[in-house]
Amino acid sequence: MLSRTVGRGVSTTEIGLGVAQFGNLYRETSDEASTDAVDRAWAAGIRYFDTAPHYGLGLSERRLGAALAGRPRADYVVSTKVGRLLVPDPSGAGRLDDQGFVVPATTRREWDFTRDGIRRSIDASLERLGLDRIDIAYLHDPDDHFDVASREGIPALIELRDEGVVRAIGAGMNQSAMLADFVRGHDIDVVMVAGRYTLLEQGALDDLLPAAEAAGVAVVAAAVYNSGLLSNPRPAADAKYDYAPVPPAVLERADAIADVCDEFGITLPQAAIAFPLLNPVVASVVVGTRTAAHVESTIERYEAAVPADFWPALVERGLLRADALPAAAAGGAPA
């Protein structure tokens, strides 16, 4: 498993394990399944793990911390997120969380990108993870909170970085334009962009990728399957896109990309994982997982050899932006 450098010497493996599902996303899972997934990832060489307090109201962080316990701390990278404080809510007794996680609603999320909120969030994450430092801390979805996140959130993360509590800082969002604003305006190390730099769409090339390259900021690509649309060799008619029913035109485009994959003897998910890593600004592709079997399939896809001529073929058919390909890949040389 190859690695790439983020910011001030933090090294992430090209595949990162996203563990939102450890927080019982959509359905319950177990401590054992989560540990097995981390064990399989570790055996495959994956050393980057991404979580957040939001995922299962802290359950994802607790399970990840337990699964990593006992491993050499210098050998792995953990990222978590700030901006949603977890606050006790006794009124939630007897009901489940209403944001997609099958966990008791006795805790609620409270948006807080203030300096105090950021520091409290990191302290709580350290306790849940059982760690003495966080490798990467992202502002989590500050879409409606840009002002306070810029004025207080980023400076608070810089303080924590200076203190050695976190090693690298940035923001994670489902859009690229605001991430580009953070890159241009602040001394950050890395951003996580979900769904906006994928085999299906490359809107981040219009703002985030050029800004990140100019500033020396790394990009982590998440949601590279676009809500599952690219996760199977042939897109399903009832697939989701941006967590909603897929529009017919988008499904048609994904199906056309799958046709080209068939021609070149690869699968759609293999190409979906390989594509972001063509860009040297991208430090890692984070893939969500629940079980060891999910990790197995991710490793198989990552290790698949994508023919060099595949990428120019997509460009020629209008299925991929030409400026998405580095010179070597555009010319058909091995990528």
UniProtKB/TrEMBL annotation:
InterPro entries: AKR, FDH-like, NAD(P)_OxRdtase_dom_sf, NADP_OxRdtase_dom. One of its GO terms (molecular function) is oxidoreductase activity. Gene3D superfamilies: NADP-dependent oxidoreductase domain. One of its GO terms (cellular component) is cytosol. Residues 14-314 form the NADP-dependent oxidoreductase domain. SUPFAM superfamilies: NAD(P)-linked oxidoreductase (SSF51430). It comes from the Bacteria. Pfam families: Aldo_ket_red (PF00248). This is Aldo/keto reductase. The lineage of its organism: Bacteria, Bacillati, Actinomycetota, Actinomycetes, Micrococcales.
